[in-house]
Design a protein that fits this description.
Elements lengths: L1 H6 L10 H15 L4 E7 L5 H14 L3 E6 L2 E2 L2 E2 L3 H13 L1 H8 L3 H4 L20 H18 L5 E6 L6 H13 L5 E8 L9 H9 L4 E5 L5 H12 L5 H11 L3 H12 L10 H10 L3 H13 L3 E2 H8 L3 H13 L3 E3 L5 E4 L2 H9 L3 H17 L6 H14 L3 H17 L3 H15 L4 H5 L3 H4 L17 H15 L2 H20 L5 H17 L6 H11 L6 H17 L3 H17 L2 H18 L2 H18 L2 H17 L3 H18 L2 H17 L3 H14 L3 H17 L3 H15 L6 H17 L3 H13 L7 H17 L4 H4 L2 H13 L6 H17 L5 H11 L5 H18 L4 H19 L2 H13 L25 H11 L4 H8 L3 H15 L4 H10 L9
Parallel strand pairs: 1-6, 1-7, 2-5, 5-6
Antiparallel strand pairs: 3-4, 8-10, 9-10
């Protein structure tokens, strides 16, 4: 009977789980139809997640899908970077070799960081400094690889045991779930819910994924009593007694794995002497094995999730025959299983492995780990190449041998960095810092900077000959923490390092360059985590390097100061800092810092009026960065160059450069950087009057960009189009969302001023002139940043237009002179280095004359003339409308014919753009002047009352006139001899007919359309 039980410890009958299996199969059908699926399957240990996935996988295979599985690997308490993805991709390559190789073509070197078989996975690349873009590139390429492989064939990727996942795997999974957009692909990830305690690192990821509508989450519950009965029957191949089922159900509480173990124990007659401890249930069959088989089980428990046979043979110390017999016994008892590849062994269930491992004595555990480490050192080929360094480090660490562990852990940290697994690099470096003081001096003396340190190498020494010290480890760890997003940990490490350096300085042994480097890192982190704008930290770094000979750190400090100034305080002082940074970088031969400083200098030159010189510099930086393959600089210039082109009014050229950048990132990945470029493109498309394309671009960037600031830029552009089209409530929502993304911790003109501009524009459109004035006063009174004319000219034009449109409104009279004077004074301080801002200067002056009732057709003709050469159709259409209005008011010879042509041109643009407010204003002016807006449209008499065109009754016209004059419902009721309730009903009807949201907006519309000329003063 024992042999029968042993072969059926897993029930041949799949019990229950119909709902969960249905969800998985439905997702499979959607994936097969080309809609990628992301699923999370959670449940306590032993509840049946693996069995459910196996049933699903079998069904998927039967339907023609390719199913690959990768499990998160645990070595002791450590995970291997990207382990489940490496395993799954390796299996996918075996199943679809041609498809995967085609999808990876041209990207092998980067993808080899996850799947080493594709190339040199340890290639450092030409970009020596660490950058978040390296990780983003790897993640993007992996996601697109899976999409392309699954383009023609349904692929199911199963990632098991996320509770053991390393941080890099978690980050990649999150990226994958957020960005999958195409392909016949389903990704199923499993995890132990009971292991995910409040501080477990998987918990924040689960919360994040829960918020994604594209992720389906399945929680697997325990079996019912009836299901337990069916499962036991399947295991023992007979109908169980009721009392046995009751006992097993009581003790297992419906946990499928415990049901199996208890059923086997009951069949063997072992259950009666057991305690209710389920751990004892797990160990009882292990303890029934021979001593050699038990020994193998204990060794396997410390080896990791899977142990290769050659490694097990080297560690076990048994003869070949004895080892095989021991393994046969363990496999026969369903304690161990051979791996699917047939090259090693693993526990049938991780709960058994954990129980065996927990049963080891402390000295026994460290002795087994030492034997693993020694075996690997003697013959590294015992394990796959992509895991041997990490495993050797883990074994030595858990063997508690600091002299051996420190070099091994440092080697593993270097490999983690090369694979862009910065989270694992940080964990390993923290482990190295823990080991440092316990390691003998002679071992530490043999370690050199050149082998282990890349974040900071500005000591002026030969890294290959310079001893590694503790501060070098701290620099590496701080950099790794910044790159992997563990910024609080990086901040803590940097703070400790600065304290050590300050103490050393007090003792006369300071290192100001290294201290300045740590302050720079602190500046970058502080701004990222919204603790400030980072300037105080940069200033401290400048203080530390002041008076020192030129160095790479000195050049980097100057470059960072210039870059900060470009974003916060553009002007002559910042330009001088950029010049010094370029000079210092050239003196020390640091090309990357030089290119960074030149990029900043180019942008500042454009702002300062040296436009062609600035663009020559920016294009040169772009070309050289591409030659050197410096991804960080390529990213910067692909974002900054289009922005600078837009600032100079070269919107079409900006779009072309954006499209080249988008194509580059489509080939190389980096969705987030692509999002920055697409958001810039949307701004230029708005300027060019390509509003539908602008909306598409902005919506894409908002949906797929991972960074908040390009999302804010996209929302601001969506608000601009919404205001232009009269969708004021939508514009209000977009601006509020943009402001949330920007926050208040680090104000920057390039984000704050466009949002303020659109807020002024929206307030004016809704008849909230006082709000518009207040916002402008806030900006002007705070001091207009130099070099921000690209944002300030449109804002001043909008403010001037609002004052002009409100002329004659009683509520606008108070404060008008002050508001006009503020606009005029601010405009006098703005630069006009290029035609587009010269045009705005003329436009602002003309609008201010209109606000004072002094504008003439000649003023508007001059405005139209400077706008006509520019490719800005919406701006030109608005100016043409005003010129036509002014000509019709003058009514001299030929004015009517000219006004007719201007109105027709403006109407055509408004219609094409869907600019409802402009179209309405043009149409009403044409009606009053009895002008047809098309050449075949007959001249029509103007209506006796313009309000009739809006469907307003005579009473509603009277009410709207009083609303426009600023009257309340009670005042309207008193003046028209009606009740306040009746007045309120009339106002509601008027708002509905005008299609506006409030009284202010209704008043603004009536005034804009000149419905009540008598109201004008």
């Amino acid at each position: 009977m024992l042999s029968d039980v042993e072969t059926r410890s897993v029930s041949p009958v799949f019990v229950g789980r119909a709902d969960e299996l249905g969800i998985l199969n439905t997702a499979l059908g959607r994936a097969a139809a080309g809609e990628p699926q992301a699923l999370l399957l959670g449940g306590e240990a032993g509840v049946g997640k693996t069995r459910l996935v196996e049933e699903f996988a079998a069904n998927a295979c039967a339907r023609g899908a390719v199913v690959v599985t990768g499990g998160c690997v645990e070595i002791g308490a450590d995970g291997l970077p990207f382990a489940p993805f490496s395993t799954a991709l390796r299996a996918l390559r075996r199943a679809l070799p041609d498809e995967l190789d085609r999808a990876a073509a041209g990207r092998e070197d980067e993808l080899a960081r996850i799947l080493p078989e594709l190339g040199d996975g340890l290639a450092r690349g030409r970009d020596g400094r660490g950058d978040e873009s390296a990780t983003a590139l790897l993640f993007e390429l992996t996601a697109r690889l899976l999409e392309q492989v699954a383009a023609e064939r349904t692929v199911v990727v199963v990632l098991e045991d996320l509770h053991w996942a390393d941080a890099s795997t978690r980050h990649l999974l999150a990226y994958l779930f957020r960005t999958l957009r195409s392909g016949r692909l389903a990704v199923v990830a499993t995890y132990r819910a009971d292991d995910v305690h409040r501080r477990h690192p998987l918990r924040p990821l689960l919360a994040e994924l829960d918020r994604l509508r594209t992720v389906t989450r399945i929680e697997l519950g325990r079996l019912t009593r009836d299901e337990v009965s069916r499962q036991v029957a399947g295991i023992i191949a007979a109908e169980p007694e009721r009392s046995v089922v009751d006992d097993i159900f009581r003790r297992s509480d419906g946990n499928a794995f415990f049901v199996e173990e208890l059923a086997v124990s009951a069949a063997e007659g072992c259950a009666t002497g057991l305690t209710d401890s389920l751990r004892d249930v797990l160990l009882v069959r292990v303890e029934s094995l021979s001593e050699s088989a038990q020994r193998i089980a204990r060794i396997c428990a410390e080896g990791g999730s899977t142990v290769e046979y050659p490694l097990l043979e080297a560690v076990a110390g048994l003869g070949a025959d004895e080892l095989i017999e021991a393994l046969r016994a363990a496999v026969g008892a369903n304690i161990l299983l051979a791996t699917t590849e047939g090259d090693g062994y693993r526990f049938r269930h991780s709960l058994v492995r954990e129980a065996v491992s927990d049963d080891l004595l402390p000295g026994e555990r460290s002795r087994i780990n030492r034997r693993y480490a020694e075996a690997l050192e003697a013959d590294p080929t015992l394990v796959p190449a992509d895991s041997r360094v990490m495993r050797r480090a883990s074994y030595w660490y858990h063997a508690h041998d600091a002299a051996k562990a420190l070099p091994a852990v440092l080697d593993a940290s270097v490999e983690a960095r090369h694979r862009h697994a910065y989270s694992e690099q940080l964990r390993l470096l923290e482990r190295a810092m823990e080991l440092w003081d316990r390691t003998p001096e002679e071992i530490r003396a043999a370690l050199h900077m050149g082998d282990y340190s890349s974040a900071y190498r500005s000591c002026g020494c030969d890294p290959a000959e310079t001893r590694l010290d503790f501060l070098d480890l701290m620099a590496e760890a701080a950099d790794a923490g910044r790159l992997c997003g563990e910024r609080e940990r990086a901040l803590k490490i940097g703070k400790r390092a600065i304290r050590i350096l300050e103490d050393a300085e007090a003792d006369g042994a300071g290192d100001p360059l290294l201290a300045a480097w740590f302050w720079l890192q602190r500046s970058r982190i502080i701004s990222h985590i919204a603790r400030g704008n980072g300037w105080d930290e940069i200033a401290k770094a400048q203080e530390l390097v002041r008076g020192l000979p030129p160095s790479a750190v000195h050049a980097e400090v100057l470059a960072h100061a210039a870059a900060w100034g470009m974003l916060h305080r553009p002007g002559a002082e910042t330009l001088a800092a950029a010049e010094r940074a370029v000079e210092y970088a050239r003196m020390v031969g640091d090309q990357e810092v030089e290119l960074h400083a030149r990029l900043v200098r180019g942008g500042l030159l454009v702002d300062a009026g040296s436009v062609e010189q600035g663009f020559t510099e920016l294009y040169a930086v772009r070309e050289r960065s591409m030659e050197l393959g410096l991804m960080a600089r390529i990213n910067n210039v692909n974002v900054n160059l289009p922005s600078a082109l837009e600032s100079a009014g070269r919107s079409a050229e900006s779009v072309r450069i954006c499209e080249e950048g988008i194509a580059f990132y489509h080939r190389h990945g980096l969705t987030d950087t692509k999002g920055w470029i697409v958001s810039n493109k949307s701004e230029s498309l708005v300027s060019l009057g390509r509003w539908d394309e602008a909306v598409d671009a902005a919506e894409w960037a908002r949906g797929f960009c991972l960074s908040d600031k390009p999302r804010a830029t996209s929302l601001t552009q969506l608000a601009a189009v919404a205001v232009g089209r009269g969708a004021f409530q939508e514009a209000d929502r977009q601006l509020a969302a943009a402001q949330r993304y920007i926050g208040t911790h680090d104000p920057q003109p390039q984000y704050d001023l466009p949002i303020a501009h659109r807020a002024i524009e929206l307030a004016a459109a809704q008849g909230r002139l006082l709000d518009a004035r207040t916002e402008l006063a806030r900006i002007v009174d705070a001091g207009l940043p130099p070099g921000s004319h690209r944002y300030l000219w449109p804002m001043l034009r909008t403010a001037a237009e609002a004052e002009a449109d409100a002329r004659g409104l009683p509520a606008a009279d108070a404060g008008r002179a002050e508001a006009v004077a503020r606009i005029r004074a601010a405009a006098k301080r703005q630069a006009t280095p290029v035609p587009v801002w010269l045009a705005h200067d003329q436009w602002v002056r003309t609008e201010l004359l209109r606000a004072e009732g002094r504008d003439t057709p000649d003023d508007w003709s001059a405005t139209v003339s400077v706008l006509e050469p520019l490719d800005r159709p919406y701006d030109l259409a608005r100016a043409r409308h005003r010129l036509a209005e002014s000509l019709l008011a003058r009514a001299e010879d030929d004015d009517r014919d000219r006004a007719t042509e201007l109105l027709r041109l403006a109407a055509a643009v408004a219609s094409h753009l869907g600019a409802r407010p402009l179209a309405e204003s043009v149409a009403l002016l044409a009606q009053r002047a009895r002008i047809g807006l098309t050449r075949d449209e007959p001249r029509r008499d103007a209506p006796a009352d313009p309000a009739e065109e809006l469907g307003l009754t005579s009473r509603e016209r009277d009410v709207l006139r009083l609303v426009t004059a600023g009257r309340s419902n009670r005042q309207i009721a008193e003046e028209l001899f009606i009740s306040p309730k009746t007045a309120s009903v009339h106002v509601s009807n008027i708002l509905a007919k005008l299609g506006v949201a409030g009284r202010g907006e209704a008043a603004a519309l009536a005034h804009r359309l000149r419905l009540f000329p008598a109201v004008r003063s």
